[in-house]
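Sharing in case it's useful to others searching the archive later.

Someone asked me privately for the predicted structure of TetR/AcrR family transcriptional regulator, lmrAB and yxaGH operons repressor, so I'm posting the question and my answer publicly. Question first, with the sequence:
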Amino acid sequence: MTVTVCWSFRSCRSCFFPGGKETVAVAAIRHSGAEFAELLRRALAAEDHPADAVTACARELATGLRESGWIDGCPVTAAALETLGTDSEIQQACADALSQWEGLVHDKLLAGGYPPEDARELATTVISALEGAEVTAQVTRSEAPLLATGRQLTRLLRSYGI
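And my answer, the predicted structure tokens:
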């Protein structure tokens, strides 16, 4: 039975993912990247002001992590760290996901009246801060890092007077 199941899995995997493990990993990263993008879209759309939207996103991430028992963090970040220094499809899929997320925040900031250059840099700051806070929240098993990051990002965005 084990041999049959194993052979079936390998056969199935090679049919759907002819590139092997790396292709499977890239597909998983793209899927999780799209899931996070959807969470981000929902959170950003839930509030009119970008600062409030970022806070909503941080809260949603914190709640999701707590409810998952601190295990449902961002696999894109983990994969990106594991493939540092490589020029692999996995690394490219991670970079694409991060770029997509920054683009969503950038668009929200532009729509909120932020100047284009500031919007680009702020989008990078928002995604970087949220990703770092998510890892810290997982390690400490606490919502506090994400909630604090959300509050500080709100202060930063509001400091532009927009």
